[in-house]
Amino acid sequence: MKSKPCLTLDDCKKMAAACEAEAQRNAWNVAIAILDDGGHPLLLLRMDGATPSNAENAIQKGRTAAITRRSTKVWEDRIAAGRTSTLSMPVMAVQGGIPLVYQGECVGGIGVSGVQSPQDEQIALAGAAALAE
Prior knowledge:
Layout: H1 9-25, E1 31-36, E2 41-46, H2 52-68, H3 72-80, E3 97-102, E4 105-113, H4 117-132
Antiparallel strand pairs: 1-2, 1-4, 3-4
Helix pairs in contact: 1-4
């Protein structure tokens, strides 16, 4: 039987704090979702000023990153390049979701929504960096 790492609540809190700090540093109000490798929510943080829609979008971005093991930017780029069949897949094809990889294993995903997509990804990457520390 294979053993693999998995996220703990402390891991999620650490990553969420790093995401929130990055968002606050830039005066961005966002929703941050951290999901396990099966795309199940472990932690959701909706900053003051972020909308209910931001929260749902963050969850969908994180789920896509977790279950596909690819950033949501990959899916966005595929559609932009003309691969419209991707639209029928159950993915959120908007930048701002990244997979979380630890010791070579995908352990989940982070999704962020509330500002421009590259900024959402910037925040998610700050959280992922905290997992590596």
